[in-house]
Design goal:
This protein is 43% helix and 18% strand. It folds into 4 domains: 188 residues, Spore Coat Polysaccharide Biosynthesis Protein SpsA, Chain A, CATH 3.90.550.10; 135 residues, Serine Threonine Protein Phosphatase 5, Tetratricopeptide repeat (Alpha Horseshoe), CATH 1.25.40; 124 residues, 3-Layer(aba) Sandwich (Rossmann fold), CATH 3.40.50; 165 residues, Rossmann fold (3-Layer(aba) Sandwich). The protein is of the alpha/beta class. The longest helix is centred in the N-terminal third of the chain and has 25 residues. Strands 1, 2, 3, 4, 5, 6, 7, 10 and 11 form a 9-stranded mixed sheet that branches. Strands 13-12-14-15-16-17 form a 6-stranded parallel sheet. Strands 20-19-18-21-22-23 form a 6-stranded parallel sheet. It is globular.
Length: 720
Amino acid sequence: MENTKATLSVSIIAKDEEETIVKALKSLESVADEIVVLIDDATTDKTFELVSQFLTRFKKKSHLSYFKWEEDFAKARNEAWNFCTCDFVMIMDAHESLHPDSQKVLNDILARSVEGGDLNAVLFFSGYAYMFKEQPKTLEALREGYPDVFFLQPRVFRRNEGLRFKGKSHNYIVGSSEKYPRKFPINELIFVHARSDENAQKRAEQRRTMNLKNLEDDIKNEPDKPRPYFYLAQTYLEIKDYKKAEKYYKIYLGKSEWGDERAQAYLGLSTMLAGEDDDARKEEAKKYALLAITERWDRAEPYLLLGDIAFEVGKDKDLSDFDRIEAFYEAEHWYKAATKMKPPISSLFLHGPSYAFLPYERLCQVYDRTCRWQDAIENGLIVLKFLKTLDSMLRNIQVWEKNLQVIPENRSILVFARGAEFIAPIAEYFTKHNYNVALHERFDSDLLTFCHKPGDIVFFEWCDVNVVEATRSREKPANQKWVVRLHSYESYTNFPASVDWNKIDHLIFVSKCIAEKCKRRFPSITCPTSIISNGVDYQDYSFAIRKSGKNFGFVGVFSWKKGIQGLMMTLKWLKTYMPDFILHARVDFYEGDTTVRQAADYWDYKYAELKNNIKFYPRREKHLDGWLEDMDFVLSCSTIEAFSYYIAEAMCKGIKPLIYDWEGSRDVWPSDLVWDDFSELQKLIEGKYESKRYRDYIVKRYSRERQTEQFKKLFEKLKD
């Protein structure tokens, strides 16, 4: 019987891919007539066993064996090729899968490639490898979804003796024949990458080491061939050895005429030089970005890079207003050009976000700087089509909408806050009480025009880099009143010493102990000060009369500041005093902070004997009312604080706090709820439980109403 379609072998080489190999194989069931899998003999996981189980059920031709990896991709590919027996061979990685829609496309290709078919003489076909955040069904659907990276590669080859792979790293196909000339059509075969971040990082490190050696060997063996210079430059760019990357890009450009790689080389040079603090190098970066466009006008990345270079120029505070606006308009021009670019056909890595949300996000930055709020909102909404839950964009759009609603006769408050959790409720209060309020994360002098009337407030939440930059970088407008709120951590930094306090009209402390400490440490603080305590919306917390029990709550970051060592000692004591106690811990471990990581390691070391007494919960919950409901006590072992919101929130519910004696704790909290040793802690646990007193204490001293009223009085005073 005459064949209705050409047959297909699928070739896979693998090492330690147990997470993804089964998904890869299942995606081939409807297209493969033969599956060949070679597994690195250094594999340590269950990849071989999983493949063997699958191939037993496959019921078609297959081959499975180990091979010795010799840091040579071409050799491994060719070894697998030798076991293939079908008309065509498809190459696939073990962490990939063939997209379901592409399975039908591939079967159609095979049907058209039988003897006499219209694709019979084609040597090989290409497909796109996508590293997805979302999975569009076709290339066109990138307008709704986007991958991190995507690139075109030859994937399906007609099996003949002359066709082989070459290149230890970044292998490529060589060979052809009279019957099968070297040509191929583009088909939308989509291969989805699914490797875990941990696995991907490990493999990337292995590849980088191997690539450097192999590519340098290739250059020694074939010094006139351009390709190894390009990929060596790419590897050096990846490991941030920019000097060598620049060297090899330039050698490559002197040898090559192929547009795709030349565009990427120019783009690599431009990216490196744009990051240098040298005007001449930045001009060179612009030149290379423009050259990238001359090679591949349809790629979005160089337009975005030109926009970024212009945008950085516009942020220069030494420029005249005219030059700054000109730079922002130039940035807008390039970003708009990037929005016109659709995902092109390219064999090199393309940056998915550049063809999706990124140009619009960049335009939002331009419009924010130039106070074009409506344009910012419109482009922000496009960003949200791709990133529907991007909190920062949602917040920005809210700010831009408020900026469009500025009421001329109202006073204005411009807030700079790198972390707006504590200031947001206060900003909301003033918005509802006839103030124009704008909230920004980072200080920028261009934004000061928001406060144009006498007595308008520029408010710096945290005594941090924002206020340092503001007071040190420019003159303060005469009509404005500048106010800083200092919490606690800042008193242990050098920020207060770096502020020009002559430009600050008022400094707010959140507690007496922090105020005294800062005044001792920073005598340069000469402006008027006051204490406005933190505030809690006590109505949001359900109250009940409670009594002692065995459930203890703890909220915070596991760090030395939060008293992790004292907490562990306290829990060990509790184990002897109350063996069946339960600590409900809503905590974070922040990997980026080495001191927190040290504290977490200490916790892991001490944790084993207490594991049956501790229940962990993710900290990221905005409202603790429901979680606190079953707590009998909340425990604090901090050594440094100015307040503690979860203590206040628990007291709103009538829960008794057990507060370790940090400096100033007895000024902030009732002294009879503070303990200094385990005998005092025992008396506190066993002592009188007064739920109503705890709530009344918060209502009287730390209510949101009291806090906002104090802010209002201060702002009215500053107006006069």
